[in-house]
Every structure is written in C-alpha cells, then in structure tokens.
Input
Amino acid sequence: MTRRKSLFREYVEAILIAIVLALIIRQFIVQAFKIPSGSMKPTLLVGDHLLVNKLLYRFREPERGEIVVFKFPEDRKQDFIKRIVALPGQEVALKEGVLFIDGERAEDSHADYEMGRTGEKGRNFAPFRVPARGDTIRLDSDRRKFYGYMIANERGLEGRESIDKFVKKIVARGYHEVDGKKSSTYTVRNDYFFAMGDNRDNSWDSRFWGPVSENSVVGKAMILYWSFDDAEYYFTFRLGDFNFTFKKIRWSRIGDIIH
Output
C-alpha cells in the first residue's frame, strides 16, 4: 500500500514539474504562434505554425528586416506578426510602393504587391519619423491618431474599447491631460518600430495605426514547426455530431527557418 502511494506521488510530482517547466518556457523562452491571415504572404502562409523566440530581445534590440510578433496597438489582447522596416529615430516613407529610409531608397525585397484590402492607398506613405525614447511629439499634428495609440500603450490601457475611446479623444482634441492640465506635446518613454506585412496590399499595419512599442514586442519568429493548407483537404468524415477534417499538410515548409 505504501509503495503504491509512493508511486502515485512520484507521478503527480513529475506531472506538476512538467507543467511548471512548460509554463516557464512559454512565458520566457519560446511560444507557438499560428498564422491567421495572408498579410505576410509569400513569406508566411495561412496555416503555418511557428515558434517565437521570446528570449532574444532581452539581450539585444530588434533589427530591421526581422519578423516579430507583438501586441496589436488597437487591442493589446491580440497578437500580430509583421516585418520591421524602420527603427527608432529613422524616417520612413513609401512612394508608389518603393520604401525609403531617411530619404534613401531601401532594400525591400520581401515586399509583395497584389491589389487587395489596402490597395493603392497603402503604396504611398508620407515621411514619418519613427519615435525614439525621449522624443517630444505634437498631438495637434496630422499623425495624432498614431500618437494616441502610443500614449494609450504607455499608460497601460488594455482592450479595444478603452483604447479606442482614448485615441478618439486625442484625435478630436489634439491634446492630452496630465494632472488635469492640457498639453499638446508628449515625451515618448519607449523606442518604437515601424512594421509592415510582406503582402503590402493586404496588410493592416503601421501605415494605418502607427509604430510598435518596444514593450509590445513578444519575440522574433524563428522556425516553422508545422504547416497545413486551410483550403485543401485530404478527406473529411462525420461521426455522430462531430465533423473530422484532415487538411493537406505542407511537408516542404516544415522546419524552414524564418527570414
């Protein structure tokens, strides 16, 4: 009887330790992420499953060209994945789909254009300086919607409804309130990055809601560990009230390093 209790205790302890280790790994080291849309085509496809390195950016800053997962500025409970195209302090612009950084044409070989959701309006973007820590921004400028999301993030607002309400006030007024006093300027606390999807005509990104804060970056996309095609199936069958679908696996993509 004692031996049986001891064996049961060993199993319980092993399971608990495994759960704790899994939680620690997910929280601080690596996290799985599934691609839900085509905004990163052709680099990442709907149905791709990848691992995100959450540890790397504890030792260095994100670099231009890296694909990152981050908290969506319009709703921080939602994760987005895009490619960083400009760093803090850099000026970014688009002219007829051509990317310019600090006034110079930039390498942008990952960009893919096919008329879609954002269309031609996303192919031109007036010069915008990506905010860096310590910058002073003006809330009465034509980019105050961007700045509203930035301030909402730095104030720790969560959820689409509360963030949207705050940003609308900034846009309508052109100022924010500090200790009950109105101010049309704001000193930025974090570094920011400008991020876009590779599928430029079908990506909801920094061109439309502004830059991504350093404290919103979850990690760097590393490797594809699984991939299946949502549109193609091996076969489907029904068992009672349940439908079972076996989707086509993209074997050639499994194990690909993400660039």
Summary: Helices lie at 2-28, 144-154, 160-173, 206-209. Residues 11 and 17 are 10 Å apart (CA to CA). The first strand starts at residue 30 and ends at 34. Residues 136-187 form one domain.
